[in-house]
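Hello,

I think I submitted the adenosine monophosphate job twice by accident. Can you confirm which output corresponds to this input? Input:
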Amino acid sequence: MAEDLKEIYEKKLNLDEIEVEGKLVFVRVDYNVPLDDNGSITDDTRIVGSLPTVRYLLEHKARIILASHLGRPKDKPTLALSLKPVAIRLGELLGQEIIFTNDCIGEEVAATKKKVQPGQIILLENLRFHSGETKNNEQFIAELAAGIDIFVNDAFGTSHRDQSSMTGIPRHVPVSVTGFLVKREIDHFLDLMSAPQKPFVAILGGAKVSDKIKIIQKLLERVDTILIGGGMAYTFLKALKYEVGNSLVEPERLDVAQGLMDEAKDLGIEFLLPVDNVVAKKTDDEVKTSIVRNENIPSSWMALDIGPETVRLYSDKIRKAKTVFWNGPMGVFEKEQFQGGTLAIAKAVAECKGKSVVGGGDSVAAINMFGLEKKITHLSTGGGASLEFIQGILLPGITVLSDRT
Ligand code: AMP
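Support: Only one job matched these inputs. Its output is below.
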């Protein structure tokens, strides 16, 4: 991580450094929660994640407005993507009434903003019911920002997006700060990329190498060991001339994969690939599976998880690490028969006594699925945002915030 990047982030004002009493405070939260077919919230982690900031504002008698997007409503009101169920859940968690408005701009919102008292909370309807949110429409931004004294970014997962509620509003209000959730994310990732304790082990999985090339390159500047799993492992193995059957391979990335392995070797970094694999003809529930070493992957079969010997090898490295970063599952973990590798790695990360950071939707989902969330130092709320952070890309939703003077 370039030092200037660290300097830019560390200069940003945080919520606990400003006076909020009586002020109209607009908090951009991330309430993009999963819903089932009946519109019930299946996981309220994101709502719970916003509570430290919301409670702080309540205790300090701010007049609070919360806003978020939910899903992809295609620029028009969509009943199934209403934030109303979130207002109910938030009200239950806080034990107080949430004033819910049926739109995020317009007369009802303007009138409610005027009436809201210190210690009261308004939740606006889904920001993406208007095209203005993703299109940075100035009129839309001006309406959202009208009357607001303070803007708080507490939506880390959307901080890599240059959109109205993230980067537009801060340009119209006197002070913009990080909320507690965003501050925590920044601190953990800055620590990970600027002063990691050694040995630093990075575990990368998921489907494709192409999505992870830049991350691997950046991590090579910092880590001692890289452990590769998931579909992306087979492009590396293919580059090493293994016959990988019908496993996922990106033929146009073979050179890049070889280049990354060469770079790791030049830098003296351990770059490990699976040594054995769980293979099957397809991913069906009833399909027969087998465990084979790399040189024995049958021609019409696919490698869909890392095997037990790889698990042992990787777990040993992870347990001995002082810093671990994990992104991406080790196999097709959505299916029980290809879940073992991801589960074992999740357990090893949980057992690691050093600092553990897990980023990316699927690896976080795996940690939650296995009930290991309390054993991880930091579970990031932002998949895309955390990967961009590690690559050293400045997140526009954070850079736009006010600097400490
Ligand atoms: P990503 O979004 O890149 O983190 O990839 C996550 C997806 O990769 C998950 O849906 C997994 O099912 C899939 N995946 C993991 N391992 C494999 C594999 N060996 N073959 C095919 N897909 C995989």
